[in-house]
Every structure is written in C-alpha cells, then in structure tokens.
Amino acid sequence: MSIKLPEHLAIIMDGNGRWAQQRGLNRVEGHKAGAKIAENVTRWCADLGLKYLTLYAFSTENWKRPKEEVRFLFQLMVDYLKDRLNLLQEESIRIRFMGRVNELAEETRNFCKFMEDETAECNRLNLIIALNYGGRAEIVDAVKKILNDKLEHIDDAIIRRYLYLPDLPDPDLIVRTSGEKRLSNFLLWQSSYSELYFTDTLWPDFSKDELTKALEEYSRRKRRYGAVIDNEE
Ligand code: IPE
Ligand code: IPE
Ligand code: MG
C-alpha cells in the first residue's frame, strides 16, 4: 500500500526495563539497547523523508526512579549524542530539546545547547528530544509567561506561542511501545487531534517492520477534526 507520511511522528519509547528484566539483565541494559533503536528509528525516519520526529526520553515524573538509573539515563543520552554529532551533521539532522532543560545539571544544559547550536543549520529531519518534559509542566510554564507578559486576550494561538517549541507542528501520529495505553503526560496540548498507535512490542525490539506497520495504520486513518468529510467511503 502507499504510505501517507505524517509530518510529525512522536514516540513514547517504553519497555526498556521490562526487556532487560525478561533477560535477567539490569534495567540499564534495556536503556542501552533502547538508545540503539532510537538511533535506527531516527535514520529510518530521515530516509523516509519525515520532517519532525519527537522522542520522549525523560519525563518530569521519571525523577521518581532510583538515582542511579536517572544518572545513567542522562549520561547515556549525552555520550550517545556526543559520539554521533558528525553523523547527525552528515545526515543533516537538527537536534532540539523540549522540556524543563533549565532544571538540569549545568553540564547537561550546556551540552544540550551545544548540540542545538552544532546542528542548527541542518534541515533534513528535525529530531526533538523531550527531556525533563511534562505536558502539564509545559502548560504551567506557558501560563506563567503569559501572566508575566500581562496578556489579557487569550486564545489557542496565544497559548501555542508560549509552548516550548511554538513552531513545531502538532504530532500527526503518536506511537507508544510496550503495551501501555496512556500518554503519561506527553504533549498534552499538542495531541488533541493526534492519531494514537499502540504496540505490545518493547522498545528495544522495535523494528523497521514495526515502524512500517504503524505508518500503514496511520495511512488508513480518516482524520475528521470534528467535521463531516464528503465522499467518505
Ligand atoms: C522507557 O522504558 C525509558 C524511559 C522511560 C526513560 P522504561 O524504563 O519505562 O521501561 P519499563 O516501562 O520499566 O519496562
Ligand atoms: C513514559 O514512560 C516516559 C518516557 C518514555 C520517557 P514511563 O515508563 O515513565 O510511563 P509510565 O510510568 O508507565 O506511565
Ligand atoms: Mg515505562
């Protein structure tokens, strides 16, 4: 079948811990395997011609995890991206971070800024990493800024302008792995008309076939946005 590509695909990469547990490994081994899959998916999306890919890497709730795991996750992300900066530039992939990055350790913050600056001119695929991201936190932060700017007339467009990345189009498709069927505080404002796709596959087992299946399913969806579509079969 011919695939109708989403402009913006967002992924809740879930199931790393369970993948490791099933193999008698430490949870962090699942995160390592998951990072490799994130790299593959990014490449597949770039090759397909997708414009925006958002990956949920760390939520505002993930601080509840053991300190060691949290530290490992940040270190893994930094090491992984640092080693692949040349590759990202060659493939013209622009990195942007979305979330309360200002709350992170200074070193991590500086690294995020460095990666954004180094890939600022890249224009094939926009890779957005949701880091210390929470949909509610994003809305709270937007409201604070709106109050600070003393705006009185509020509408959808104003709120959008105050989100972390206002130029980012809403995700057309949100994929979640590992069988959980919830958003877990991901893109709450932006997901109002997103198509949702859930698969039982754990993130470290996510494959190109799985991605194709999700895109095929998306291609079959009829998006109505509350309206009536003429000639709908
Ligand atoms: C997703 O895998 C990675 C992050 C949330 C950072 P999990 O670590 O949530 O894996 P499970 O859900 O425990 O299997
Ligand atoms: C969502 O996964 C967050 C990320 C993938 C970064 P979680 O594993 O944290 O979600 P819950 O706790 O199962 O809802
Ligand atoms: Mg999980």
Q: Could you walk me through the main structural features you see in this protein, from its secondary elements to its overall organization?
A:
- It is a single chain.
- With 233 residues, the protein is α/β, with parallel strands linked by helices.
- It has a six-stranded parallel sheet, sandwiched between helices.
- It is globular.
- 42% of the residues lie in helices and 15% in strands.
- The protein has one domain: Decaprenyl diphosphate synthase-like (Undecaprenyl pyrophosphate synthetase).
- Bound molecules: 3-methylbut-3-enyl trihydrogen diphosphate (2 copies) and magnesium ion.
- Residues 13-18, 58, 62, 73, 178 line the site of one 3-methylbut-3-enyl trihydrogen diphosphate.
Q: What is the residue-mean pLDDT, rounded to a whole number? A: 97
Oligomer category: single chain
Query: How much beta, percentage-wise?
Result: 15-25%
CATH homologous superfamily title: Decaprenyl diphosphate synthase-like
Determine and state the CATH class. Alpha Beta
* Series of H and E elements: EHHEHHEHEHHEEH
